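Data availability (excerpt). The following record was deposited with the supplementary files.
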Amino acid sequence: MNIKLLKSCFLITAVILFDSMFVYASNETPKVSQISGKIMWVDVKQGKVEIKLNQSSGEKKEYRITRNETRVKDPSDKKFLTIDDLRTGEHVTFDVIEGQEDKIVQKIVTESLGAADFQESSGELKSYDTQAGTLTLEEKMRNGQHVNSELAYFFFEPKDVVVLESSNIQPSEIELKAGDRVKIQFVLKDEKKQIYSITLYPSEVTSTTTTTVTTTTQ
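Predicted structure:
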């Protein structure tokens, strides 16, 4: 066989093999890791969310989210959810592409709780027991409507309390006491009121800054 023709055939074969390898590499499915944890804070306007990982170290990580690119679903995928439904204290699982942790999260699986599942109650704190995980409130408002003053009872998981300060969205220490003016966000679980967040209002209403205490169960 002509040497030049043989070299040409070899060169063409090498090019085809290289191109095939490149196409295969470029079409290879990215490796996706599932990161699970609890939402520490979420800011939809900034497109950011921080979670505390389900690890003994309690490591926290911040991720990017957007309404158009981040799909939010419940475990059974029966509810239409968006990032607006994400709540502090919820347990979530993120699909994160390895090596692209700084990119926008594509999918979030959260507890099957939408915004409509949450209710609010405001009033004066009467008792707050972190050992028993119970709270009693002299309720003044419920879901934005004034109500006759009456006692309302709530529960939470003591070991899972997270404290947030809304002025800088960073964890901080705070101690609730009887007489504090608070707003509680909760859901009904087995006909009992499970707390997800508590907003503490200053004794003198001179600022819009509030402090949020979040609680949830595993």
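Summary of structural features: The chain has two domains: 32-115, 118-214.
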